Amino acid sequence: MNKKDQGWLNLYKPKNISSFLALKKIKNKFNIPKIGHAGTLDPLAEGVLPIALGKTTKLIPFVNFNLKNYIFTIKWGEQTSTDDIEGNIINKSSKVPNDIEIKQSFKNFLGFIEQVPPNASAVKFNGERAYKLLRSKKKFDLKSKKVFLKSIKILKKSSESHTTFKIECGKGFYVRSLARDLAQSLGTFGHITYLNRTKVGFFSNKTAILLDELLKIGQTDFEFNCIHSSMSMLDDILAYEIEEKKDFEDLAFGKSIRIDKKKLIKPPLNLDKKNTVFLSKKGNIISFGKLNGDLFKPNKILI
């Protein structure tokens, strides 16, 4: 892969492989110098994993605010140490809630809520990852954090003890924590047995490429058919398309340029605020920075 190449890859990560290992396989196969992903998927989870290639990795912080869709299944009556099927059972209950009870509990979880991450997560506690502390059988209590749940609904009741849901949520949301807390609010216990991320921003599972299929194709097919523009994952951004050759050359040297604010794509109502502005050329982000009047001052150059 050419070092100048950049963009996004819409990968469908299978179960039983970490996000890190999936990236490593792709990096080695296609000789990619720099690679990263927006939103980690647990090894037991499958689904959409947006992968940033080359200088597009600098855009990852701006993608994490996109809403994500998940389909997941809860097994009622058992809580595990990891809040999924990988952990040991630590609590049991004979109660299985019905659909009416479950739907009535949804109101307690919609909008901005405080959520405690699972003990088997990458959250740090006193400088150490929580999952490492859990493996070492050390006692610790993670602090809650504010997360956002836009919607939740029941898809089906697959058996007497299992219910499948669909949710749309924001950055940093833990589905395993939702399963744990939802069950406890219903007077029982529960854990995740199936987890599938079906959408991240504009990327969905309908257009994602399976990891095994990706690793079978050649370099040319990868570059021409699998790489999406760096702008394709950024939603509702303040963007400006560079047309003048001199502006492009000045940006390449990190210089500030003047832009016509009338040509801004999706301008906000109040341009006096110091919004981050993204400059693009033919669908790819080439820089982002701040506006001072009509003067664009770059923070990062992606050329």
Number of helices: 8
Beta-strand percentage? Answer: 35-45%
Distance between the termini: 16 Å
CATH superfamily (homologous) name of the largest domain: Pseudouridine synthase
Order of helices and strands: EHEEHEEEHEEEHEEHEEEHHEEHEEEE
Query: What overall geometry do the principal axes of the alpha carbons give?
Result: elongated
CATH topology-level fold name of the largest domain: Pseudouridine synthase
Q: What is the name of the CATH architecture of the largest domain?
A: 2-Layer Sandwich
Structural notes for this entry:
With 303 residues, the protein is of the alpha+beta class. The chain folds into 3 domains: 7-65 and 202-233, Pseudouridine synthase (2-Layer Sandwich); 68-200, 2-Layer Sandwich (Pseudouridine synthase); 238-301, Archaeosine Trna-guanine Transglycosylase, Chain: A, domain 4 (Roll), CATH 2.30.130. It contains 8 helices and 20 strands. It has helices at residues 19-30, 60-63, 99-105, 130-135, 175-185, 211-214, 219-225, 245-252; strands at residues 7-13, 35-37, 46-53, 68-76, 78-80, 89-92, 111-115, 124-125, 128-129, 145-159, 162-169, 190-200, 203-204, 209-210, 227-228, 238-241, 257-258, 276-281, 284-292, 295-301.
